[in-house]
Amino acid sequence: MATTLDKVDVVTVGAGWTGGIVAAEAAKAGLKVVSLERGRERGTEDFLRVHDEYRYAIRYELMQDLSKETITFRNRRDQRALPMRTMGSFLLGEGLGGAGTHWNGQTWRFLPYDFEIKTMSDQKYGANKLGPEYQLQDWGITYDELEPYYDKFEKTAGLSGEDTNPFWGKRSNPFPTPPMKKTPILKKFEKATQDMGYTPFMIPSANLSEAYTNPDGQTINACMYCGFCERFGCEYGAKTSPEITVIPTARETGNFEVRFHSNVVEVLHEGGKATGVRYVNWMSGEEFIQPAESVVLTSYVMNNAKLLMVSNIGEMYDPETGRGTLGRNYCYQILPGATGFFDEQFNTFMGAGSLGMAIDDYNGDNFDHSDLDFLHGSLLTMTQTGVRPIATNPVPPDTPSWGSEFKKASIENYTRVLSVGSEGASLPHRDNYLTLDPTYKDAYGVPLLQLTYNFTDQDRALHKFITEKAVEIMEEMGAKQTVGSNPISDYDIVPYQTTHNTGGTIMGADPATSVVNNYLQHWEMENLFVVGAGNFAHNGGYNPTGTVGALAYRCAEGVIKYSKEGGSLV
C-alpha cells in the first residue's frame, strides 16, 4: 500500500536541466518544490581522476539501467517491436543532472524559421511541398517570443561563443564569455570554408573558455581541454551542468528537496486536474504518493510521453486516421558528413565537447529549396572533441577489418583523420510516432514505450545533399583521401547516432494538433506541465539543449504564474 506524503506546491519528475530550472525558479519564488529522481546523487567530486573510457563511454556508467526499463522498436507498423537490450542509437541519462551531466555542451538556438516552419515554407514554396504524409506545423511560439528565455539560459550556463553567424536570430545580449580556443585543426576548417565563400564561426559552448559566475551566484570553471566530455561528467566543474548550476540554486532557497531512487510510475488526477504522482523507491521497494498543486514532467523525451500514456492523460495519436496528439511527430536526426585522411598529424586526442567551428549556409531555409526535393538542412562542423582509443579506430575503406594491416592502418591514422560532421534536421512523418507496447513491461509492471520510426525520402535526399557539401569542404582542406558518408536506407537502433530525440508531447497553438500550449501547460489539465525536447514539433539542424533550456525557463514562468492566478495561461 502506498504511503501518502505531505502536499507540496510543485513536484517535478526528474532532476536534470528541465527539472532543475523549474525547481530553481519556483523555489526562488517561494514555492515548495520536490524533485523525484530515479537515479542517484552525484557531482563533480565523483568524476575526479576517472578518465575511464571503458567504464563511461563503452559501458555507460551514467546511463539508464535498461534491465529495469527500456523501449521497444520497429521500423514499420506491420513489424513486431522488440526491446532495446543495450544502449545503441541514443543514450538515456539517469541520476542527478540527467543527460545534462554527460552531454557535450554544444548549445544552440533554433533558427527563427524553425518555430514557424509550416507558415514560412508554405508561403515560399507552396502548400505541402513534401506531400501530405509530412506533418509540418508551427510551434505556437516565435523565435522573438522565446529569445528572452534563450538569453536567460545562456547566462545561467555562462555560454562561450561569438555573435558572427549571419544566419541565426537576433540576440538581445552578447555571449556571457568569449569563444573557446581556435586550434590549428579549426583554423584549417576556417580557411577552407572562407575560401569557399562561407562564414565560419565558433560553436556556442557550455565548456567555458574562462571561469564565470552566473546571475544566481554559481561558479563554473574554465575548460582544461582534456577531451573527456561526452558520456563523462566533468571533473573540473567546467562543463556547465545542472548539478553545478540550477540544482545548488534551488537547494540554497531552503524550499527544495530532491529524492533519489524514486521512479515515478503514474501521474494521479481527478476532476480534470493532476493531484500528484505515484512513485516507487526502487532501493527499498516502498511505494509513495506525492500530492502537489502542480505536476511538472521534466524527465527524458520518451519517459514524459510514457507517463502521460500510462496515466491516460490526453488522446493517443492514431497513424491510421491522423487523429490524436500524444505520441505524434517523433523526430530524430541524420548524420551526413565526410572523413578525410591526411599525411600530417593533429592533436585529435585533445579537445572539449563543444570545441569546434561551423557554417550555417545549408541549415534551415538559409538556401533556396525551390528545385530540391527536401526542406530544411543542417549545419556543417569541424569539431575537436577528443578522440579516445577504444571507440576510435579510423582506417581507409579498403583496409581489412582485422589482422596486421588493420593494426598498422589504425595506428597510422589515429591522429591523421579529420571529419566534417553535421546534424540534419528531421521532419515529422505520419508513420513515425510513440505509443505503448502491447506486450512488454518494465520492472514495475508498466508497459514499455514503443517507438515506430524509419528514415523518409526527405531524410535520404537531405543526407545526400549535405554529404556532397561536406566532401567538398574536406577536399578543400587538403585531405589526401576523402570518404563521404554512406547513403542511408532503413533506420537502425544501433549503432550510436545522437541523443537528439524529439516530439511526442509537442507544443502548439491548437489543442487538436498539440499536447501543450506555449507555456508547456497541458491543454486538458491546467496544473500539469510537460517540458523537454518532446515539445519540439520537428527536429532542427542543431543540438537541442539550448532550446530545451529556453523552454524550461518559459515553463517555470508558467508554473509560477499558475500558482498565483490559476487557469489556462494562454
From TrEMBL:
Q: What is its EC number?
A: 1.1.99.3
Glucose-methanol-choline oxidoreductase N-terminal domain mapped to chain residues: 218-329
Q: Which Gene Ontology terms cover its molecular function?
A: flavin adenine dinucleotide binding; gluconate 2-dehydrogenase (acceptor) activity
Q: What class of enzyme is it?
A: oxidoreductase
Q: What positions does the domain Glucose-methanol-choline oxidoreductase C-terminal occupy?
A: 428-552
Q: Gene3D superfamilies attached here?
A: FAD/NAD(P)-binding domain
Q: Source organism's superkingdom?
A: Bacteria
The reply on keyword Cell wall biogenesis/degradation is: no
Alphabetical UniProt keywords: FAD, Flavoprotein, Oxidoreductase
Q: What is this protein called?
A: Gluconate 2-dehydrogenase flavoprotein
Which organism is this entry from? Answer: Bhargavaea cecembensis DSE10
